[in-house]
Amino acid sequence: MDWLTFIAAIVKALAWPLTALAVLILIRRPLLRLIPLLRKLKWKELELEFEQKIIELKSEAAQALPAPPTRRQLTERTPSRLEQLAEISPRAAIIEAWIQLEHAASGALSQRLPDVSVTWSSGQIGELLAAHGLLDKNKLEVYNSLRKLRNQAAHHEDFTIPPKTALDYVVLAQALATYLGPNA
User: Fold this and answer.
1) Using CB atoms within 10 A as the burial measure, which of 40, 96, 170, 179 is most buried?
2) Cα torsion at 103, 108, 109, 115 (round to 10°)?
3) Distance between CA atoms of 168 and 53, rounded to whole angstroms?
4) What is the phi/psi pair of residue 150, to 5°?
């Protein structure tokens, strides 16, 4: 094989990969603008459907929990700290709402089990709430769904959702925290 044949073989082998790379470089900005609009992201075994899960969770929670405030009620009053945070940083609002819910859940368990001083994981808290009659099956499902969504928000590097979806999460978490007691 002479050097011209060698160069031709290399050019032929690299033509499609370089073309694909050039196209990605040219359209990277429009693609980056589309990322916040994603409803579903699948990468290997990871699949994120945060917004869709919130919609499903709202309908489940409507049956299981006391009615959360309506959009009109929310707009007629001063927004809470978490509602304001949802506009600025949806991820932070989700994490903070979960912390409040977890605090309410731990407080409800502490009242039910005053002699036990153990630190439980979030999953264990949910199971204990159900075992002691503080959450029925539907409310436990809402709790576990909120926990899983919070985990996605906390642990996935490229997590992005619109502020409205974060606000929906906040409202659901606060409704469940209110149900669990005054420690929210």
Assistant:
1) 170
2) 110
3) 11
4) -65, -40
User: Are 149 and 169 in contact, with CB atoms under 8 Å apart?
Assistant: yes
Q: SS3 of 182, please? A: coil
Residue 56 structure tokens: 């499903």
DSSP letters along 95-153, please? HHHHHHHHHHHHHHHHHH-TT------HHHHHHHHHHTTSS-HHHHHHHHHHHHHHHHH
Cα–Cα distance list, 178 to 28, 31, 100, 104, 115 (Å): 44, 41, 10, 8, 24
Quick one: which of 138, 148, 164, 173 has its CA closest to 47? 148
Tell me the whole-structure pTM to 2 decimals.
0.60
Give mean pLDDT, residues 161-177: 86
Contact 78, 155 (CB under 8 A): no
The answer to whether 122 and 148 are in contact (CB under 8 A) is: no
Cα 128 from chain centroid (whole Å): 23
Closest CA to 63 of 172, 183, 177, 181: 172
Question: What tokens does 16 get?
Answer: 């499609």
Element of type H or E holding 71: helix 71-76
